[in-house]
Write a structure and sequence with these properties.
single chain; alpha+beta; 11 strands; about 55% helix; globular; DNA-binding
Length: about 400
DNA sequence: TCGTTCACG
DNA sequence: ACGTACGTGAACGAT
């Protein structure tokens, strides 16, 4: 994958870069207008002086070094009180995308081959995941409109198509498997939309009565639980009261008692043995699980419950990658495996191999590591990375 | 080199 | 009262 690289359409990036440049220029003018002076917008220090001293806005949160924070959640809160924070949020979003992705990826693209080559690091992440660097191709934007435009610049070689295959809600399926939770196992066995199913159980209603907002809440709980989320943390994410968040967590614990038991037992196991492990026995040592400092200890407890899930997912996709590679060799295909993004594999395939590859990839991903829960994989093709989803 | 911020799963 | 969901990598500013 490192040597193969992936093809970049520099023309697309150049156009995005120009659009971003003019939009940023406009925002800069508006920001200086509101601030009443010019300054380095990217300097949190200079920005802090403007926001909290000159304009006298509230200090919502402090950084680890005790300075007034200007992070996104702070600016969001201040945006109702002054026009400047909203402009800064827009500026930060666009300058991040331009500087980190659009301009950098363009520069790193080989002028002849039009391809870009990352490093996949095998011995960095403590959970067993891969990481990607120089450049990191595992954090290419996708959540915003401009971000999605950047994905369109990742294209297949001439005449071929990109194929993306994603595990569907794999973390929660592994949680169901490891905890052997009856309700969670049943919902997956029934092929239900898991967040809707959770909402129905937690709110004691029919699945077809679940409202958008209830599903959103259930989704945050589902994803928060395997990380050991606190009532306060969940409240931040939901923008709800701590009270409501706490009730949601308690209701979840009553709904999925075996998950709750597994979380407790996994922390106990870490205390007893000094490590936790994945389904296949990959270990992570967590010595601070016995720390006298409560903050340090709590952190170790969250690490302990998260690693078996995240690590088993990493084990699973690695097995799938090896098996897919072997079969590609055996069948002598031209298709190439290009990227891995934790729960996703990206390939480029010639048109005549598309049907074969779709089937081969789905089969090997689904069957890589049997966990007693149905594993679902979403496979799509397209003219670029965005369209392949 | 460190701190802050923010991009992804 | 403490700090507050896990795992990463990179850009930028300050020192």
């Amino acid at each position: 994958m490192e040597m193969e690289g992936i093809c970049i359409d520099s023309g697309i990036l150049r156009e995005i870069s120009e659009n971003l440049a003019s939009e940023l220029k406009r925002l800069e003018a508006a920001i200086y207008e509101q601030a009443g002076e010019t300054f380095k917008i990217g300097s949190t220090q200079q920005l802090g002086v403007i926001l909290f001293e000159k304009l006298g806005l509230r200090v919502v949160a402090k950084t680890s070094k005790g300075k007034p924070s200007t992070k996104e959640s702070v600016l969001l809160e201040l945006a109702t009180e002054h026009p400047l924070p909203g402009l800064l949020l827009d500026w930060r979003k666009l300058s991040k995308l331009k500087n980190t992705y659009v301009d950098t990826l363009g520069d790193l693209t080989h002028p002849e081959t039009r391809r870009i080559h990352t490093d996949f690091n095998q011995t960095v992440a403590a959970t067993g995941r891969l990481s990607s660097s120089n450049p990191n191709l595992q954090n290419i934007p996708v959540r915003t409109d401009v971000g999605r435009e950047i994905r369109k610049a990742f294209v297949p070689r001439e005449g071929w198509t990109l194929l993306a295959a994603d595990y569907v809600q794999i973390e929660l399926r592994i949680l169901a498997s490891m905890s052997e939770d009856k309700a969670l196992l049943q919902d997956f066995a029934d092929g239900k939309d898991i967040h809707t199913a959770t909402a129905a159980r937690v709110f004691h209603i029919d699945p077809d009565e679940v409202e958008r907002d209830q599903r959103r809440k259930a989704k945050e709980v589902n994803y928060g639980i395997p990380y050991g989320v606190s009532p306060w943390g969940l409240a931040q994410r939901l923008r709800s009261s701590v009270q409501e968040a706490q009730e949601l967590i308690e209701q979840y614990q009553r709904t999925y008692p075996d998950v709750s038991r597994w979380l407790v037992e996994t922390v106990e196991e870490a205390r007893d043995k000094g490590y936790v492990e994945t389904l296949l026995g990959r270990r992570r040592y967590v010595p601070t699980i016995k720390a006298s400092n409560r903050i340090e200890r709590s952190f170790a407890e969250r690490v302990a419950v998260n690693m078996p899930i995240q690590g088993t997912q990493a084990d699973m996709i690695k097995i799938a990658m090896v098996n897919i590679h072997r079969r590609m060799q055996a069948e002598g295909v031209q298709s190439r495996m290009l990227l891995q993004v934790h729960d996703e594999l990206v390939f480029e395939v010639p048109p005549e191999e598309e049907t074969t590859m779709r089937h081969l990839i789905e089969t090997e991903m689904v069957n890589a590591l049997p966990i007693g829960v149905p594993v679902e994989v979403d496979v799509n093709t397209g003219a670029n990375w965005l369209d392949a989803h």
